[in-house]
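User: Hey, my collaborator sent me this sequence without any context and asked if I could get a structure. I don't really work with proteins. Can you help?
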Amino acid sequence: MSEQIEEIIKKMTLEEKVGLCIGASFWNTTPIERLGVPAMTVSDGPNGLRHVPDMSDPDQRSLPATCFPTASCVSSTWNTELVQQMGEAIAEECIAQNVDVILGPGTNMKRSPLCGRNFEYFSEDPYLAGEMAAHYIEGVQKRGVGTSLKHFAGNNQEYQRFSISSEIDERTLHEIYLTAFEKAVKQAKPWTVMCSYNKLNGTYASENYFLLTQILKQDWGFEGLVVSDWGAVHDRVASFKGGLDLEMPGPQEARVKASVEAVRKGELDEAVVDESVRRILKIIFKAQQTPKGGEFDQEAHHQLAGKIASEGMVLLKNNGLLPLKGQRKIAVIGRGAKSPHFQGGGSSHVNPTKVSIPLEELKKTASDIEFSYSEGYPKGEDFRQDLIDAAVAEAVAADAAILFIALPTYIESEGYDRQNIDLTNQQVALIKAVAKAQPNSVVVLNNGAAVAMQDWVEGVAAVLEGWMMGQAGGTAVAEILFGKVNPSGKLSETFPIRLEDTPAYINWPGEVGKVYYGEGMFIGYRYYDEKQVPVQFPFGFGLSYTSFEYSNLKVSQQSFKDIDGVVVSVDVKNVGQVTGKEIVQVYVHDQKCSLRRPKKELKGFTKVELQPGETKTVTIPLDFRAFAFYHPGYHRWITESGEFEILVGASSADIRQKVNVNLESTLVLPSLLNKESTIAEWMQDPRGKEVIAPIIEQMISRGPQKDIKEIEDTEGGIEMGTLEFVKDMPLLSVLMFSQKDLPLPPEEIVQAMLDEVYEA
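Assistant: No problem. I've predicted the 3D structure and written it out in structure-token form, which is a compact way to encode the shape of the chain:
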């Protein structure tokens, strides 16, 4: 294949090369018929195929496809095998509809619950998001269809997404906002990666050499093509230089002409264009190896969508009412019961093959129960007290009430961010009124990200987070409420009590064209742990109709080298009366680090099914990266020898077992000392500590020095001695105060010490 591609490149004209690097239409690449290069077709995803064969026809809808649950629900399954099955099913539908590459998955971090597109993103945690993305990609590409990992990178809001600059420091960028992409790229090898609209630290992602070339292609070894988000290119020549291979959509005749002229004038190296052509041809021909056409099993895919929904829904509260049993009449309240809110708005909107209606599914599941229906809240923004009054009347006349509460599309969608995390005023008033009249009230939520509940959660008997649940979600809700399915989902994001409690609150959504990620790496549970801020429901939380006990936590080695890693095992027992699935989560805490680290970070998980009374031992490996952190001084991931605490639990706030281990770092790192290094930094450097030892000994032996004492508070004195007083001062500055007693100028002494360090 590579030889064939090189032959084609030799025969291509410059115009053909540049033309291939810009789309021919909304969904297609540019064919070169004389050289046997076909067009490649891409289409929207990621929770289902949105393929419109003819975008020139404004009345044409996308072809029917299975609408799977959105990423917020999928990630709450914590079931990588299920995610991979979903990917395979989506690939089958792509093949049937002649699509070569599906545009997904979305892997950006949930920095704030306000992001309007959060329903398309997996998690606030990069490890969980990376695992979900990698298995999705593996599932799709296993069937010979490509994926487009997006939106790379720092696209964590919709506000000014086409132009705003995400200002992210180096360590935060690598530890939080690139990690999930890195895991997916290295583990699953997506065919394409889609750059985001926004700027990253002042440079458009589509032109960002550091992001697209240095990190993605060179450091991570990405071998596919980089495609622009639709309309993300501002300067095609600059984007070529940055590492963008394919601009979409097309045609863009003026940009083809400008790029050709840039090559001929020597402003753009033709070798750069050739490399993009090479990458594009590789993917085009790879796609051609998969025969297209045929049909897919709509019913099987619908059933799979239902299974994913049932495993992704999270039981947040249950006072014992669920599963429902013994009721003769149940009031079903809320528009979502008849008009299910099962997907988000925007480019991922799927034309479903069919839709399960929750009210009908409830009736099928419990045919012996009488169900009534009340609208509860209007479609628009109007406040309708009459709908609330009617709902209360139905609830009072019933044995229990089920409220289907869906966050409206005008509040949550691609294209704009939410203004708050509240339900509508009508919905809050409805829940409170119904719960007051009928204590046996269950709230089923359909939303894409966290919502506030403090005003009403105490008054209801149960809360089921149903997310944007896909076309079969109605069936999943009914089966969970009546106990045919034991809920097993757990939150992939924290539910805060108030918007004001969230990490990005002060730095959202930015101003004057920039948004500062001032919270750094402390997003999600990392922030709530550090600040000890109470939350409504913690990351990793989810209830079940049974209970689980953890015991016998073990590690394969108490002491180990970073390159070897360690294997964690723990026994989990179902101590309840029904079969259930538990998600075992492994967090790591660095007991002592040269840089600040979160109190704990998710580094492994597994989902295990247990019969009543059954015990299983689960094992979770932890590798080098489970203990490493990104050091901006070294510009790389490093480990430090020392003690780590491994925490195993049912959520980030429910740690059941702990064990300490000792890690030996195998890294030999260069010194970072320079003329501005403080005494403390000299003392922390292995070689620097030896070199500075004579000076430290002299300080300690002499005690507080007169020249130092003259600059301190004369009443307070130096309580900890001279060393404590000066340890955070540059060594050079300290020597300046004593230069009259020195044999050489301070600058020469420090330089000689540095020479000794670096010669070692």
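In plain terms: The chain has a mean pLDDT of 95. You can pass these tokens on to your collaborator as they are.
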